[in-house]
Amino acid sequence: MSHTTNGFVCAHHHLYSSLVRGMPAPKNRSNSFIDILNNIWWRVDAALDNEMIYWSAMLGATEAMMSGTTCIIDHHESPNCIEGSLTTIADACKVVGVRVNACYGVTDRWQNDQTLRSKVSPLAKMTEAAKRGLAECDRYLSAGGNGMIGVHAAFTCSDETLVAAAELAQKHSVGVHIHVAEASDDYQAGARLESIAKDNWLLVHSVHLDRKLKGRIVHNARSNMNNSVGYAKPTQWPNKILLGTDGIGADMIEEARLAYARLREFDVSAEPSTVWQWLDNGRDLFPEANDDVVTFNYDFSDSPWHAAFTTNMTVTDVEIAGEKVLVNCQPTRIDINEVRAKAHEQALRLYKRLT
Q1: Where exactly are the structural domains of the chain?
Q2: What is the pLDDT of residue 1?
């Protein structure tokens, strides 16, 4: 028995996180969202180099494709390896055959003296690191890359940087891809973005958003639970909702199942069709996914009521743009064992830098 669907879209990924699973526990205990950023993610970001970025993207894209995700909207940060990083990610995804929309997440948290600030004053001046991040987005898009203008979050950016990012997005006729009110630490995000947000922006998380903003909201149920930031209640907003993973893989059917369970806990009258519409909405940004073909080993893979409760559905074959990139669960373009081995080598290099 088998059935086909269109390709899926991960509307918010951090491909570099492919190297992080299995890393040694941080020396300091994390008791808050800011602690998690300081103890884990901002240390990882700062340790990345070009080779790590390439193989993490290669592994992440391969695993995405093997789960039926043919298009990825990626948000990247590597403050010590900014220039060319988006091209590195795009090149890795191209080898696998997966489409990617890439951006560099600009931030002022790295001060000009290389010290790190967990929060940045709205009145601060734009840092050199933020200028370099914007320049990387500009370079990549000007060269024909498919992407957006990335911003980490309002609480790590000055108003000057937020406005510059919005202006650069308008220059390239693209949206801004930004974490919004993920935790209470970013509670001012709505007020600071209200006057500059546009309909083509991606508002990621929006857990503590206090007002309606223009843009699409990207819900990341698993990550929000993992970081203990609360439930985003996406159905409270009139915005179009999309689904992302925030870097925890790119199995969108699995993400949808968890998002539905979380929604159901919040609203017992909710039906799976609501969350499966969030999945479909990702194809607005990547309409090419509608031409991709994903084959499951289950007859009812396109039925929300079946898929929401059938946890052992497996993708067996994937066609992207007419090319069979997965046949009988095996990638055709790359050697999955080599990719995993190379990524493991880079993961060990990363872990060594973090000790």
Answers
A1: 3-354
A2: 55
Long-range contacts formed by 136-141: CB under 8 A, 24+ apart: 136/82, 136/83, 136/84, 136/85, 136/86, 136/104, 137/86, 137/103, 137/104, 137/106, 137/168, 138/168, 138/171, 138/172, 139/83, 139/86, 140/86, 140/87, 140/90, 140/102, 140/104, 141/172, 141/174
Sign, CA torsion 288/153/41/127: positive
Q: Residue 27 pLDDT more than 90? A: no
Task: Provide the phi-psi class of 157: left if phi over 0, else alpha when psi is between -120 and 50, else beta.
Answer: beta
Closest CA to 78 of 107, 111, 48, 52: 48
pLDDT of residue 355: 84
How far apart (Å, rounded) are the C-alpha atoms in residues 181 and 192? Answer: 11
Q: What angle do CA 56, 58, 63 make, to 5 degrees?
A: 95
Digit-coded pLDDT (tens) for 245-296: 999 999 999 999 999 999 999 999 999 999 999 999 999 999 999 999 999 9
Instruction: Report whether 324 contacts 97 (CB < 8 A).
Output: no
Residue environment code for 12-48, b if the CB has 16+ CB neighbours within 10 A, otherwise e: bbbbbbbbbeeeeeeeeebeebbebbbbbbbbbbbbb
Closest by alpha carbon to 34, among 102, 101, 116?
Answer: 116
Q: How far is the C-alpha of 97 from the C-alpha of 319, rounded, in Å?
A: 10
Q: What's the pTM?
A: 0.97
Residue 230 CB coordination number (10 Å): 15
CATH class in words for 3-354: alpha beta
Q: How far apart are CA 110 and CA 124, in angstroms?
A: 12
Write the pLDDT tens digit of every residue in 199-242: 999 999 999 999 999 999 999 999 999 999 999 999 999 999 99
Question: What pLDDT is stored for residue 344 in this prediction?
Answer: 98
What is the C-alpha to C-alpha distance for residues 63 and 61, in angstroms, rounded to an integer?
A: 6
